[in-house]
Specification:
The complex is a heterodimer of chains A (112) and B (105).
Chain A lengths: L3 E4 L2 E4 L5 E7 L5 E8 L3 E10 L2 E4 L7 E2 L9 E3 L8 E8 L7 E2 L3 E5 L1
Parallel strand pairs in A: 2-11
Antiparallel strand pairs in A: 1-3, 3-8, 4-5, 4-9, 5-6, 7-8, 9-10, 9-11
Chain B lengths: L2 E5 L2 E5 L4 E8 L6 E6 L6 E6 L5 E4 L2 E5 L3 E6 L8 E7 L3 E2 L3 E6 L1
Parallel strand pairs in B: 2-11
Antiparallel strand pairs in B: 1-3, 3-8, 4-5, 4-9, 6-7, 7-8, 9-10, 9-11
Classes of the chains: A mainly beta (112), B mainly beta (105).
Chain lengths: 112, 105
């Protein structure tokens, strides 16, 4: 089954404690991206990657890092989380020959 | 800067009561307008892509249309299972805040 998986699905942490949210897709897609979703603001892109070792900033990259060492994986790293990063995070992927973007199930992060 | 505005924020419908959702956008050189459905606790699910003014696409009770300034998602004779938040996006990057549709039986 074609899918995008994220882990963990729920995470409560404290300010300053480094964390990583993993994202993996099994569709051999070149393009992957991370979004955060906040009430009233919609989905905002954090980072995206066009292919392995190619990443670029989206609209709200501050406080986040990403890496793309393998085609299937695109982890989101918060080196020093702060309460304003409390949000619902989605990973997404698509192939280069299609506009259909597939989203993961989401990770709800709370930073205390 | 691309801007996407969806209205209304929320829509409550009786089963069978047709209605429309609006997505207004400002973008220099539209490359594509996308509609997604999002159920509570889940990621957005792709519905349609529209590329040029006048284009229409249909899927079951949903029909999406596009003009040079806005897109409409028409829901014909909705059923309770059509209850969801509907998101539009331009050029895959800029999303609206969504319209939450609730259909009562």
């Amino acid at each position: 089954e074609a899918q995008v998986t994220q882990n963990p699905r729920y995470l409560i942490t404290v300010t300053g404690k480094k964390l990583t949210v993993t994202c993996s897709q099994n569709m051999n897609h070149e393009y992957m991206s991370w979004y955060r979703q906040d009430p009233g603001l919609g989905l905002r892109q954090i980072y995206y990657s066009m292919n392995v070792e190619v990443t670029d900033k989206g609209d709200v990259p501050e406080g986040y890092k990403v890496s793309r060492k393998e085609k299937r994986n695109f982890p989101l790293i918060l080196e020093s989380p702060s309460p304003n990063q409390t949000s619902l995070y989605f990973c997404a992927s698509r192939g280069t020959s299609t506009d259909t973007q597939y989203f993961g199930p989401g990770t709800r992060l709370t930073v205390l | 800067e691309d801007q996407v505005t969806q209205s209304p924020e929320a829509l409550r419908l009786q089963e069978g009561e047709s209605s429309s959702l609006n997505c207004s956008y400002t973008v220099s050189g539209l490359r594509g307008l996308f509609w997604y459905r999002q159920d509570p606790g889940k990621g957005p699910e792709f519905l349609f892509t529209l590329y040029s003014a006048g284009e229409e696409k249909e899927k079951e009770r949903l029909k999406a249309t596009l003009t040079k300034k806005e897109s409409f998602l028409h829901i014909t004779a909705p059923k309770p299972e059509d209850s969801a938040t509907y998101l539009c996006a331009v050029d895959k990057l800029s999303f609206g805040a969504g319209t939450t549709v609730t259909v009562r039986a």
